[in-house]
Design goal:
By secondary structure, this protein is an alpha+beta fold. It is built from 9 helices and 8 strands.
C-alpha cells in the first residue's frame, strides 16, 4: 500500500464505488455495512460528496445516488483518450517531415498547456516538459486557440488583461492582438515569431472535434535559422496535419 495513501480519500472512493448499475441507490445504514465503516463516518462522506455534486439525495426516500458531476467527469475520459490517440500519427508525420519539435496545446484561461510532445531529432532542439504552461498571446499554439474561441468567451478572457511582454517582439496591445487573431482565422494558422523567446519561432493550427469546436492546437517549433526559410511549407504541413487529427476526431468541415 502506498505511503501517500489518504485513508479519508480511500473511504470516499469506496463509497463512490458502491454505486453500480445493480446498486444505484443506497441508504446510510446499508452503505455503512457494505463498506465496513461506521454510520457517522459514512454520513459525513455522503454529505461532503453531495455538497460537491458527486452524489444526490432523494428528498422523498433519503437515499443517495450518483450526481451529475460524475457524469461530466466520465464524459471527459473518452474525449481525452480520443485526442491522445488521434494526434499520435499526424504528430509523428509532422515531426518526421519537418525535423522539428511538435507539440499539442490546450487552452487554460489565458495560458496554453502542452499535453503532448515529440522532440526534434536534431542535435539542437527545444526541450519542453509536458504540462508546461506559457502565455497564450505570445505562442503559436495559444494564438491558434484564442483565435477560434467564440466572441463572448474571447471578450471575457481579454477583459482587464494587459498581456505581458516577454521579448521585444511580443504583442502587448489588445488592438494588435485582436488584429493578429483575425489574421489567424483568415489564414488558418498562427505564428510565434520570437515573441516568447528570442531565436525560437513556431507555427500552429487548430484541432477541432466532431462538432467543429476547437479543442487543441498542433504546433511545430524550432530555431529561426531552421524555420524561417521553410515558413510557407511548414504552415501548409501543420494545417494539413491538424486537419488530419480533426478528421480522426470526426470533424467533417473543409478547414
Amino acid at each position: 500500500m502506498s505511503r501517500n495513501r489518504l485513508s479519508s480519500v480511500a473511504s470516499a472512493v469506496a463509497v463512490l464505488k458502491a454505486f453500480t448499475s445493480t446498486s444505484p441507490n443506497w441508504g446510510v445504514s446499508d452503505l455503512a455495512a457494505h463498506v465496513g465503516q461506521s454510520k457517522s463516518t459514512v454520513h459525513r462522506i455522503l454529505s461532503t460528496l453531495t455538497d460537491e455534486g458527486l452524489l444526490e439525495q432523494d428528498s422523498s426516500t433519503g437515499r443517495y445516488r450518483l450526481g451529475l458531476v460524475l457524469f461530466d467527469l466520465a464524459a471527459a475520459v473518452p474525449s481525452q483518450r480520443s485526442l491522445h490517440e488521434a494526434v499520435l500519427l499526424p504528430m509523428t508525420d509532422l515531426r518526421n517531415s519537418s525535423g522539428e519539435t511538435v507539440q499539442i496545446g490546450v487552452l487554460d484561461g489565458r495560458q496554453v498547456v502542452y499535453v503532448e510532445r515529440l522532440n526534434s531529432p536534431n542535435t539542437l532542439r527545444l526541450f519542453t516538459e509536458l504540462g508546461r504552461r506559457n502565455d497564450a498571446h505570445c505562442t503559436g499554439s495559444g494564438k491558434a486557440l484564442l483565435a477560434f474561441l467564440g466572441k463572448p468567451q474571447l471578450d471575457k478572457l481579454l477583459k482587464g488583461w494587459d498581456p505581458p511582454q516577454r521579448t521585444e517582439h511580443t504583442i502587448t496591445s489588445r488592438t494588435e492582438l485582436l488584429a493578429e487573431l483575425k489574421r489567424v482565422r483568415r489564414d488558418g494558422f498562427a505564428e510565434n515569431r520570437q515573441e516568447s523567446e528570442i531565436g525560437v519561432v513556431s507555427i500552429a493550427a487548430p484541432i477541432r472535434d466532431a462538432s467543429g469546436v476547437t479543442i487543441a492546437s498542433m504546433s511545430v517549433a524550432g530555431p529561426t535559422d531552421r524555420m524561417d526559410h521553410r515558413r510557407d511549407q511548414l504552415a501548409d504541413t501543420v494545417v494539413a496535419m491538424a486537419l488530419a487529427t480533426s478528421r480522426r476526431l470526426g470533424y467533417r468541415g473543409r478547414r
